[in-house]
Amino acid sequence: MNGLLSIWEGSDPRQRLVALLAGLAALLALGGLASVALKPNMSLLYAGLDQSAAGAVVTALESRGVQYEVRGDGIFVEEGRRDAMRMALAADGLPESGAAGYELLDALSGFGTTAEMFDAAYWRAKEGELARTIVALPTIRRARVHIANPVRRPFERGSEPTASVVVTTIGGALPGHQAEAIRFLVGSAVAGLQMQNVSVIDAERGIALRAGEEGAGTAAEGEDRAEAMRRNVERLLGARVGPESVIVEVSLDTDRNAEKITERVLDPESRVAVSTDTEETSAESTGGAGGGVTVASNLPDGDVETDGGGGASSNSTRSRERVNYEVSEVLRERTRNPGEIRRISVAVLVDGLRETAADGTETWTARPEEELQALRALVESAIGFDAARGDTISIQTMQFARGAEAGEFAEAGAGGFLAANAMTLIQLVVLALVTLALILFVLRPMMQPAPRSGAIGSDEESLQLGADPLGNVERSIEAAGDLIDAEGVGVDKLAALRDAVQERPEDSAFLLRSWLESDDKTGKAA
Question: Rounded to two decimals, what is the model's pTM?
């Protein structure tokens, strides 16, 4: 400490100012570096919350005294306390999971709740539950569901409920098959809601699925089927020509229309008796003897005597049979869903035969026609070829353009290490720079004594004395001798002084230093 004080006292004002500024800069740099190094690592707590839910989470963190940061729509806390805070917030019911669901019905009481109020709360709960289910999908960040259920009135027809769904994805556009899945979910959850009456809207890219139009599920299914066919054909041909010597493309023309067909067939040649009705009728009659009309014929019976003459009689029988037949009929009902294949088109490009000569030259020849026909037969069997449907297969052999030879396997080098430890390396570099600046601009000036200069003689001749007077004794004596001779001092005295300095250099240097320190700042002898 005494050495530092003596160096500080021996420094001029300029050196002291430089040392103070350098020390202050070094302290500020070390403080900033320490704050960065001691700052805890922040980890994501929640992201994509509604504003109200995010505000409730922030308020809960502040009440617990937890350090947090808000970056965009994400809330970050200390990495070591993240899991504990999630469980603590979950115990308090935070964050609120979007729209309210069926818990809205729990708040309703039997007293003072009208039918209209219950219906409104029920549809709100239905919308909230559907939104929760949609948000559970891995690619959906937020969702809102709106259901328009008209009030049913007597003798009113044609009033059907409709619905619309607004979703926000995590990244990219909403795929068509997911839009169709959301439509299916909403249509199945609401009674009487047709799937064609559900609209799906991407919050960032507009309408994904309009009401009344067919979904994109058919197109996606057709693409999947075409891709499966392509892989199968490419794997099959690659076993013969090599996986890098064949390219296959499959195109499917599918019918996206859906229809329902009802067919009734009657066969008049085929009949079955279903009932038989038989009716029989019999009649019998008898008449008296014939004769003229007299008075006696008008008298009552018994009063007139009749002779024993013969009379006329009749007897009739009638039979009728009725048979009911049922004609044979066949009733067929067929529903054709979209996705029926209309036509399959396959294009196959295979490389030719390559031969390498002894001198390293490579020759290419096309594959023979017999081999191409065999490959065509394999493709037809793999895709279910149907000529009546209009399927086409094209197989061509052409020379493939070979790329550059593959080099050595690229392993993770210094770039991966630097990328993984960038912040740590930056902190080390800053610390090294601060340490170097502290040594160069603070410690080195403070440890180095201040230079002293003195001029002896006229403007033409001067003596510069450094920090080491012993090394400059001879030159100082010679300069002093010239000065003394110029003033008329004897040379023999100067020779005696030189001899004394050579015999006792340490004492002479101490005496000379004391003499120089007693001079004024200009270096001239008093």
Answer: 0.41
